[in-house]
């Protein structure tokens, strides 16, 4: 998924996941609580909650933490989070979408705007760049789930639109309305997926030079580390040389 996938791969290879695990668990718990509060606390009847639990399990979040986050949705003491999407342009003119959950809109907006400005980019109005992306469903499996041909065949049979397989695993894309059905069909064949979620997929990834690429990755990392930010997407592509350099 262009900048988004490249960023995730680099962070994984750099071993950043362990250092950020506590913060990651907090973000995963927030999504579980919000999903449970918006629907039923039963993941079999609440696709968004089920997706949030899958994401938590993929990061080895303890069962007690997951259940505590679900229970929090029923309690009166739970915080009220507002979901906000920010859009803007990063270095090199790359389009970036930031999804956040916050209990203080002004604080979060101020922080996100400053990150864009310091990177040489700028925050824009909602809708300014999202037209360059498609809102689609994404199901992820590890490379051990199946070979590329078997995954492609099963995905097409399940109603998916596209499959991207690599040494890191399989990314299956589908219409956002078909995500639940595609996930269940693939789960029956390959077991529980690593993720099942709605994402912003760039329509036409834009190649950026290495100088802009380094600044973009730094911006993506800064955004990801913010407590209120849940997801960050970009429509840029980095050179293989820069990918290799940043993964070291």
From TrEMBL:
It is found in: Cytoplasm. The keyword Thylakoid does not apply. Residues 5-75 form the TACO1/YebC-like N-terminal domain. One of its GO terms (molecular function) is DNA binding. Keywords: Cytoplasm, DNA-binding, Transcription, Transcription regulation. Belongs to the TACO1 family. GO terms for cellular component: cytosol. One of its GO terms (biological process) is regulation of DNA-templated transcription. Residues 81-236 form the TACO1/YebC-like second and third domain. It holds the Pfam family TACO1_YebC_N. It comes from Microvirga subterranea. Signal peptide: none annotated. Gene3D superfamilies: 1.10.10.200, 3.30.70.980. Its main location: cytoplasm. This is Probable transcriptional regulatory protein DES45_107212. It comes from the Bacteria.
């Amino acid at each position: 998924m262009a900048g988004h996938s490249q960023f995730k791969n680099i962070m994984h290879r750099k071993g950043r996941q362990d250092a950020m695990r506590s913060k990651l668990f907090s973000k995963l718990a927030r999504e579980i609580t919000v999903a449970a509060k918006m629907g039923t606390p039963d993941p079999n009847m609440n696709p968004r909650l089920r997706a949030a639990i899958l994401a938590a399990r993929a990061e080895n979040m303890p069962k007690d933490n997951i259940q505590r986050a679900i229970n929090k949705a029923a309690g009166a003491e739970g915080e009220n989070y507002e979901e906000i999407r920010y859009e803007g342009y990063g270095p090199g003119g790359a389009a970036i979408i930031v999804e956040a959950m916050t209990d203080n809109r002004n604080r979060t907006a101020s922080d996100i705007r400053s990150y864009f400005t310091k990177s040489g980019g700028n925050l824009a109005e909602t809708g300014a760049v999202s037209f360059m992306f498609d809102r689609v469903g994404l199901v992820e499996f590890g490379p051990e789930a199946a070979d590329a041909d078997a995954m492609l065949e099963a995905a097409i049979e399940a109603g998916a639109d596209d499959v991207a397989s690599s040494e890191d695993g399989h990314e299956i894309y589908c219409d956002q309305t078909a995500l639940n059905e595609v996930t269940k069909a693939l789960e029956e064949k390959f077991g529980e997926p690593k993720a099942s979620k709605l994402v912003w997929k760039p329509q036409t990834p834009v190649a950026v030079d290495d100088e802009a690429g380094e600044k973009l990755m730094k911006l993506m990392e800064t955004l990801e580390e913010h407590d209120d930010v849940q997801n960050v997407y970009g429509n840029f592509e980095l050179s293989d040389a820069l990918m290799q350099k940043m993964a070291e």
